[in-house]
């Protein structure tokens, strides 16, 4: 068991409000670690919470003083909230700035609040999570209140396994993209198959 900061997944209506005082961190039960990504469950006053956490492999510029940046995805099934994406930058972000998240060439703009960045809608959350699960690398660029912009690089090697662990723990069903049906076999008019009982 481990004690970790409570995941900050809330409804999108709450994202824009001033962050309340952090409650006592709940005890987290680790579901597993997967190539730099760890999956957990915990309980708080709203019920069961499942979340994954990953830390950046590389951050630039190295001269910036900050807490270690991290990425999270959180499910709160009792509140019917799932796939909430957040990036904690480890410093206070510039007011009104966006954080750019790029996954294998696809870029998403996240709004900021304090030291964290969020997707603007639950639909965008789902798209980002799906993209992260299929991706190889995520690059996060943020702008602090003071000092130069930062760039954090995350390997996504273990993301999909950590996501599968929290999906299972919180009963979140992930929509699979159905493969197109196979085309019917093309008939060969010049050759006819013999009936098994026929004689040559």
Q: How are the secondary structure elements laid out?
A:
Elements: E1 2-3, H1 12-15, E2 27-34, E3 37-44, E4 47-55, E5 58-60, E6 70-76, E7 81-88, E8 98-103, E9 106-113, E10 116-118, H2 122-134, E11 137-142, E12 150-155, H3 159-170
Antiparallel strand pairs: 1-2, 2-3, 3-4, 4-6, 5-12, 6-7, 7-10, 8-9, 8-11, 9-10, 11-12
Model description:
- The protein is mainly beta and 200 residues long.
- The protein has one domain (2-18, 28-170): Invasion associated locus B (IalB) protein (Immunoglobulin-like).
- Helices cover 14% and strands 37% of the residues.
- A 12-stranded antiparallel sheet has the order 1-2-3-4-6-7-10-9-8-11-12-5, covered by helices on one side.
- Strand 3 and strand 4 (47-55) form a beta hairpin.
- It starts with a strand and ends in a 30-residue tail after the last helix.
Short descriptors:
mainly beta; 200 residues; 12 strands; twelve-stranded antiparallel β-sheet; single chain
Q: What is the CATH H-level superfamily?
A: Invasion associated locus B (IalB) protein
Level-1 CATH class name: Mainly Beta
Quote the beta fraction: 35-45%
Tally of helical runs: 3
CATH fold name: Immunoglobulin-like
User: Structural class, please?
Assistant: mainly beta
Q: Please identify, by name, the CATH architecture.
A: Sandwich
Low-confidence region ranges: 11-23, 177-181, 187-200
Order of helices and strands: EHEEEEEEEEEHEEH
The coarse overall form would be globular
Approximate helicity band: 10-25%
In the residues, how many domains can be counted? 1
Strand line-up across the major sheet: 1-2-3-4-6-7-10-9-8-11-12-5
Distance between the termini: 73 Å
Mean pLDDT: 83
Rg computed from alpha carbons, rounded to a whole number of angstroms: 22 Å
Biggest sheet descriptor:
12 strands, antiparallel
